[in-house]
Design a protein that fits this description.
Blueprint lengths: L11 E2 L2 H4 L6 E2 L4 E8 L2 H6 L3 H18 L7 E3 L3 E7 L3 H19 L3 E7 H6 L5 E8 L2 E7 L2 H10 L21 E2 L5 E2 L3 E10 L3 H19 L23 H8 L5 H24 L8 H10 L4 E3 L3 E8 L3 H13 L3 E8 L1 E10 L4 E8 L3 H18 L1
Parallel strand pairs: 1-7
Antiparallel strand pairs: 2-7, 3-5, 3-6, 4-5, 7-8, 9-15, 10-15, 11-13, 11-14, 12-13, 15-16
Helix pairs in contact: 3-4, 8-9
Length: about 400
């Protein structure tokens, strides 16, 4: 298939368990590039109360790329304090320009350092690493990318290595990135069942053995949590509440203000306040206005949320009964002790939702889910420590 249309032409999987079968993945073309962005020292940012800003910076990396590459369907995965994006190498100039704009905004507005790295798929494959992708249909035309193979871990290792040629030097004078459509207006999603559990799970087996492990673990979740998998989604219509002004108005405004010249900050603040006021009226009254049907839109948001995904490991934010959290954690710890997995977990009473809405009436939107108060970033600390200890033994 042609390189530019590679991902668009992939057939979509409709069963999440099929996502956990590597036979359903296709190799990314050699002339595609992998971009990895992450907020450095995100743990310190969490201590400073900036995890919502960390989420917005990560989501901004995806938003600006999608805004500037509308003719090519691209795979991406949101990881809380970082993102992975795959793209034809021909799009590199515009992608790097946009990502540098996000980095400049993150530094100016939030004093966050965004690291941007890239590596050619063909280089990874030539070194013996695999990198593959699948497409998972969540609802209607809505799809999410799933990434597999050994190349993702190697790409991240090379990009984060002190001695490498993969990190992009940041340009403080880069033009502001186009993050139109990005917002964070929903209040934290309160757990309906008791707790939100953010999980990272990586099988230590490889190949078909890893597939079997992921499938068995996922199929066991209803038994461990006491809930069918569709009830584990933290995004529920009843949990979607918005107020005015939005709780995170300042973060959204500053993200859209770029490097924050006074006039642009004024226009960003005005737009955010007025646009969010219209949304608050529509969603709080529940009355359809023009092309916006709030009930239909909320139902669509539930289906278009990335609360479960795969990018070389299983990432999930689950809403489960508080009494079942120790059961899940005890099971994971037992699996870790017997050498089957590495895992990381984080507990909270709510989840965060960061939205990219290109069109309400055409159902062109996607919603990134993370656990509140640290989510994926804090779960990753436990996950990485287990890997470090295993490597030192």
């Amino acid at each position: 298939m042609p390189s530019e249309t590679f991902f668009a032409d992939l057939p979509a999987l409709t069963d999440f368990e099929a996502v956990l079968d590597s036979r359903n993945y296709q190799p990314l073309p050699d002339d595609w590039m992998i971009y990895v962005t992450d907020v450095c020292n995100s743990t310190d940012a969490i201590r400073r109360g900036l995890y919502r800003a960390v989420n917005m910076v990560g989501a901004a990396c995806i938003t600006c790329v999608l805004n500037n590459c509308k003719d090519v369907e691209l795979p991406f995965v949101f990881g809380g304090d970082g993102t992975t994006i795959a793209s034809p190498a021909s799009l590199a100039p515009k992608i790097l320009r946009e990502l540098q704009g996000v980095a400049a905004m993150a530094s100016k507005q939030f004093q966050l350092e965004l690291r941007i790295g890239r590596i050619l798929v063909g280089e990874l494959r030539g070194a013996g690493f695999s990198i593959e992708v699948a497409k998972f249909r969540t609802s209607g035309s809505a799809t999410l990318a799933m990434l597999g193979g050994t190349g993702l871990i190697e790409a991240e290792r090379r990009i984060k290595s002190p001695q490498n040629n993969y990190v992009i030097s940041l340009d403080a004078a880069a033009p502001d990135a186009d993050v139109s459509g990005l917002s964070c207006r929903w209040q934290p999603l309160q757990s309906a069942h008791g707790e939100m559990l953010t999980l990272l799970v990586q099988a230590r087996a490889t190949g078909a053995d890893a597939d079997r492990y992921y499938q068995q673990f996922y199929s066991r979740l209803p038994q461990l949590t006491g809930l069918p998998d569709e009830k584990l989604n933290p995004v529920k219509v009843s949990a979607m509440q918005t107020g005015w002004p939005p709780k995170d108005f300042s973060i959204e405004m500053r993200t859209h203000a770029g490097r924050g010249k006074l006039l642009k900050r004024f226009f960003a603040a005005t737009y955010t306040l007025l646009h969010s006021l219209g949304g608050a009226i529509v969603f709080n009254t529940g009355l359809p206005v023009g092309w916006i049907n709030p009930k239909r839109y909320k139902n669509s948001v539930v289906l278009r949320s990335d609360f479960r995904k795969f990018d070389g490991l299983l990432r999930m934010v689950l809403d489960i009964p508080a009494a079942k959290v120790p059961v899940v954690l005890a099971f994971l710890e037992g699996e870790h002790r017997r050498g089957a997995i590495f895992y990381g977990a984080h507990r909270s009473d709510s989840a965060l939702m960061t939205c990219v809405v290109f069109s309400v009436w055409r159902d062109s939107h996607v919603h990134f889910i993370d656990g509140n108060d640290g989510g994926y970033a804090l779960a990753a600390l436990q996950f990485k420590e287990q890997i470090r200890l295993a490597g030192s033994n």
